[in-house]
Amino acid sequence: MTTSINPQEIPQAEDLYQILLDQLKEQKKVSPQFQLAGLASGGAWIAERLAKDLGLPAYGVINVSFHRDDYSEKGVKAFNSAEGLSTKLPFEVEGAHIILVDDVLDTGRTVRAGLNELFDYGRPAKVDLAVLADRHRRQLPVDATFKGAKVKVADDQILVLEQSEDGRLAFSTETKE
User: Fold this and answer.
1) Which CATH number among 1.20.140.10, 3.40.50.2020, 3.90.1700.10, 3.30.70.1350 corresponds to the domain 3-175?
2) pTM for the full model?
3) Between 92 and 75, residue with greater pLDDT
């Protein structure tokens, strides 16, 4: 079931995290042999916490900077925005069931870049996508298998995930440049 959020409300990331965690607990009952890989940096924070809460031994991090279709515009700034996190996949990609994790699904372009980076490491048997918030403004044919909620945020706003020192997640909005 997908929950919708009122456009005037900033979604509560902790509530969406719990919904996502519950969905992945159900998935673990059906197919326990999946790996988590978070897209840097918000998706990596979520993947780290999900791995702990699901009792998984490890999780991966995928930096999409060099596969972004706007790399020529953003250049090294894109890499730095991923907090210097490089791709680290502590599991075999070839033949694995991998769940990519991201904070916000919007146009699908970041997910496309994440898939390109993932396939540089091997060919998984299956890839699913898990996100906290789905803005559902696609430019590419991408959808999440697992999602906290479908959200509406003004078109000139960006939904930004923040992580506090104690690991709690919160969304804020910023106006696009």
Assistant:
1) 3.40.50.2020
2) 0.87
3) 92
